[in-house]
Amino acid sequence: MWRDHLTELIIFAALFALVSVMGFIAARWRRPTTMEHLDEWGLGGRNFGSWITWFLIGGDIYTAYTFVAVPALVFGAGAAGFFAVPYTIIVYPLVFLFLIRLWSVSHVHGFVTPADFVRARFGSPTLALLIAITGIVATMPYIALQLVGIEAVLRTMGLNGEWPLIIAFTVLAAYTYQSGLRAPALIAFVKDSLIYVVILVAVLYIPSRLGGWGAIFDAAQEHFDQTPAPTDGIVLPASGQIGYATLALGSALALFLYPHSTTGVLASRSRDVIKRNMSALPAYSFLLGLIALLGFMAIAAGVTSSDGDTNTIVPNLFDEMFPDWFAGLAFAAIGIGALVPAAIMSIAAANLFTRNIYREYLRPNASDAEEARVSKLVSLIVKFGALLCILVLNPSFSIDLQLIGGVIIIQTLPAVGLGVFTRWFHRVGLIAGWVVGMVLSIWMLYSISSPTRAHFAGSSYPLANLPLVPDDTAGGIWTGLVALVVNLVVSAVVTVLCRRAGLADGQDRTRSDDYVADQGDPKVKDVPELVNH
Amino acid sequence: MTVPESAPDTEPPQRPPASRRTDASPWNWFLLPAIVLPIMTFIYNNDEPRLLGFPMFYWFQFALILVGVGCTTLVYQKTKRRG
Q: Quick one: CATH architecture of A2-412?
C-alpha cells in the first residue's frame, strides 16, 4: 500500500516537482536570442562547456534503466551482468578520435544528426534515410525502457496504477517541448548529484550491515552454487568469456552511433571539451560498477523481487536497508534518472525525423523556424508513442525491441563510424551492407531460443550455430558483432564491384580539413560574409 | 580523397585554403591498451587473489577504469590545441 511509503512518496514528489520547475526555467538558461532554430532547441546553442557536457552525456548514457537493469542482471546471472563495466571502459578510447572528427565536420557544416553527415559525405539521400530510420527505430524502445525504470520505483512505493506514469511523462513532454536540450542539461545536474550521493552512501553503508564485501561475494557464490543454472557465479564460466568480451566490445561500438549520444557531443563547445570528457566520463563507469554490485548485496540481504519482476530488486533493497527519507531520495534519483535520457532521446529522434525525412522528402525549403517547430511536435509524438508502448504492450516486448535496437544501430557503423575517417566505401556498397546486416541480425535474434522462449531469447548467438565452428562448442557471441562483420564484408565487396563497373560516387560536400576544424574556425555558412569583407 | 568526381549540382561556396592540421599522432596509440585489456577476460577471470574482499574479477576491472582514464588523459594532454 502507498500509505506505508508516505515519507518516501513526499520526498519523491518534492524532488520531482523541483526538476519540473527547472525544466521550464531552462528555456531562459544561457539565454538564446531565439528558440526557433534547431541549433538552439535541439542542441542547446552548440556551446556547452566541459562541466555541462559531462553531466549531459553522463545523464544521457547512464540511464535509469541501466541503474535498475544492470544490478538485476547481476542478481540473476552473476559475473556476466558486470559486462557494463568493461563496456564503459572500452567506449571512450574507442570513440575518442571518431567523436572529435564528427564534431568538427558537424560544426563546419551545421549538421544536427549523424544522418546529416552521411547525406553530405556520401551524397546519398537514400543512405541518409536508412541511417535516420535505423536511429529512430533503435531509440524508440530505449525511451520506453526509461519508463520501466520509473515504473519499478513507483511499484516499490506502492503505486501500481498507470496514472502516476502518465502524469510524470506529460510533465516531461511539456518542458522538453518548451526548453529543448537545455531542460535535460540543467536537470542532469540534480540527477547525477543525487545518484552519486545515493550510491556512495549505499556502497559504504549496506556492506557494513551485511558483514563486509567478502561476506557479500561469498553469499552470492553460495547462492549461485545452489541454482540449477551451470553458467551463473561470481566469475565467468569458461564458455561465457567470448560472450562477455564481445558484448562489451559490441555495446561500446554501438553506443555513440545512437543518435542521442551524438546529440550530447554535438552540443559541446569545442574539440577539447570532448577530449576532456573522454577522460572524465569514466567516473560514471566507476559508479556503474558499484551499482552493479547492488545485485550481490540484494542476494546477501535476502531481498526478493515484487511480482517476479527482477527490475524491482534495487528499489526493494533500498526500501529495506535505508530509512524512509533516504529511500525517497534514492527513488527520486532513479526516477529523475529516467527523465534526462528520455528527453534527450526524444529530441534526437525528433531531429532525425525533421532533418532527414521532413526536410529531405516533404518540405525541402523548410525554414529554420519551421524545422524547430516540427522537431518540437515530433518530440511530443515520440514520447507518447513510447508511453503507449509501455501501457499497451507487455514491457518485455520493449526489452526485446531494445535488444534489437543495439544490434541494428551497429549496422550504421560503416557509414557513420568509418565515414569520418574514410570515403573509400561506395554509397551502393554501404546500402547493400546495411540491408544484409539488418536482415541477418534480425534473423539471428529471431532464431535464439531459451528453455522458456522460442524466439528473441537474448542477444547471445550460440557459437556452435556459426559456420566453420565445431558443433560441440559451448558459449555464445554477441549477435551484433557477427552481423557487423558480414555487413563490412558486403560493403567492401560491393564497393569494389561498383568501382569496376564505373558507377559514379556521390558528391562529397566535406573537405579533409573540415574534420579537424575547431571552435572559432569559419563555418560554411560564415564563408560568404568573410569573402565579401 | 574528398574531391568530388562528378560535377557538383550547386556551386560550392568559396572557402579558404585547407589548413595542414591533422588528427594523426603517435600518441593515439596509447588509446589501445584501454580497449584491448578489458576484452582479454582470461587475464582477470578469477576469484583469487581477493582485495578488500573483492574477487579479482571485480577489483581488476575497477582498476582497468583507472587505466582507461590514464590513457585518455595522456592522449588529451598531448594532442590538445596549443595557444
A: Up-down Bundle (1.20)
